[in-house]
Amino acid sequence: MAEFKFDIKKTIGTISENAKGWKREVNVMTWNNKKAKIDIREWDENHEKMGKGITLNKEELIKLKEVLNQVDIDELEID
Known about the structure:
Layout: E1 6-17, E2 23-31, E3 37-43, E4 50-56, H1 58-69
Antiparallel strand pairs: 1-2, 2-3, 3-4
């Protein structure tokens, strides 16, 4: 498996944490020294291991925010 570099530039916030100490975080990150993006994924407590996540560029983040602002969360059938 090819190695890659990542750098967490800024932690925006933690969405959740499980009993094993893993946290789902929103971070500003760079991957392989490319442009910084918003990243949402789970991390172990030392940021050495990560789960699958989603990475968004600025335009995608703007669109996601617009979409979520239109959602009435109480009407969704989610837990």
